[in-house]
Amino acid sequence: MTSQAHPYADLAARLGGHATTFTTPEGELTGYTAGDLGASTPVILVHGWPEFASCWEPIASELLKAGHPILAYDQRGYSPGLRPDALEEYTVEKLVNDLGAVADTAGIECFHLVGHDWGGVMGWAAVPHMPHRIQTFTSLASAHTRAHGEMIARDPDQYERMEYLRKIRHHPEQIVASMLRDDAAKLRSVYQGAIPRHIEDAYVQRLSDPEVLAASLKYYRALGLGTDMPTQPITVPTLYVWGSEDAAFARSSAELTGQYVEGPYEFVELTGRSHWLPEEAPEVVAAHLLKHFARG
Fold first, then answer.
1. Can you list the residues of the chain whose pLDDT is less than 70?
2. What GO terms are given for molecular function (predicted)?
3. Of the four listed, 178, 193, 233, 252, which is most buried by Cβ atoms within 10 Å?
4. Confidence (pLDDT) at 2
5. Residue 158, class by beta-carbon neighbours within 10 Å (0-12 exposed, 13-18 middle, 19+ buried)?
């Protein structure tokens, strides 16, 4: 692991931590750590689309104040050191393997896992894959994958919310060009005006590289190429936090999620909050996380 010429040097310094490059068997993932990873159970924070590990800074700050060491990383495609061309390199299984490899590289055996959006999708698959390593799991926004799939088939509202996914899968090149046109107006619209402008600008600056944006969209295009839906039950203590104004995940998917969790489970609805919970409601989310960790 190194920390030279790193995109998270300033962020890590603000947290009193270290900008880090995690070298895995498949490539390098950029990220940062803060706190003593060996002193207590670390929290691994995994971002979604279209975000980066920087989305966690406000939440990480709150967790560190409470004594929880943290680790966050840019997923494959977002990290320049692991941006493969082949579509099959972006399956959920690959994302789960990356999580395990990052934990191994950092010397972490057991951890709390928190994922937002695609980080949550990955998390629902990771928990049954490595329940001995994940002490608790929290998904922000993302319903359980099977609950979501069931509601896409049964609920017209949830089906309509996935129209963007169908466009990405069938017309990826056109989507990239369209999103970046006119100062990335369509890409900016994804954030629903719900996150601070300086954070939005930082995301857009990095995603304005067509190669980065195209790689991030491969997550959607790779759906169906692997085993996307976990079939084993979720047995670790699980917290699901959902905003009532989430544009991607309908209430039907959110409320069905608990049926796929056999372990201790809590569903928290944040009234009036959107999909962008790490950026929009960090202090509220952090408070729920701390309660969850204490119970787990």
1. 1-4, 226-231
2. hydrolase activity
3. 252
4. 47
5. buried
Peptide bond between residue 50 and the one before it cis (omega within 30 degrees of 0) = yes
Q: At 150, which CATH number?
A: 3.40.50.1820
Q: What is the CA radius of gyration of the chain?
A: 18
H helices of the chain, in order, are 9-15, 57-65, 92-105, 118-129, 145-154, 156-161, 163-170, 172-190, 197-207, 210-221, 251-256, 277-280, 282-295
Q: How many CA atoms lie within 13 A of 286 on its CB side?
A: 20
Q: How far apart are CA 126 and CA 113, in angstroms?
A: 9
Q: How many domains does the chain have?
A: 1
Residue 296 pLDDT: 78
From 25, 18, 23, select the one nearest 3 (Cα to Cα).
18
> What's the burial of 284, exposed, middle or buried (CB within 10 Å: 0-12/13-18/19+)?
middle
- Whether 4 is in a domain gets the answer no
Residue 192: inside a domain, yes or no?
yes
**pLDDT given for residue 3 in this prediction:** 42
Tokens of 261: 């969790």
Alpha-carbon gap, residue 195 to 201, rounded angstroms: 10
Provide the 3-class DSSP secondary structure of residue 270: strand
Q: Are 30 and 114 in contact (CB under 8 A)?
A: no
Domain that holds residue 75: 9-295
Residue 262: per-residue pLDDT: 96
d(CA 110, CA 31): 19
**Is the C-alpha dihedral spanning 255, 128, 163, 194 positive or negative?**
positive
Q: What is the SS3 assignment for 266?
A: strand
170 vs 70: CA distance, rounded Å: 38
Long-range contacts of 59-65 (CB under 8 A, 24+ apart): 59/114, 59/278, 59/282, 59/285, 59/286, 59/289, 60/15, 60/34, 61/15, 62/282, 62/283, 62/286, 62/287, 62/290, 63/286, 63/289, 63/290, 64/15, 64/16, 64/34, 64/35
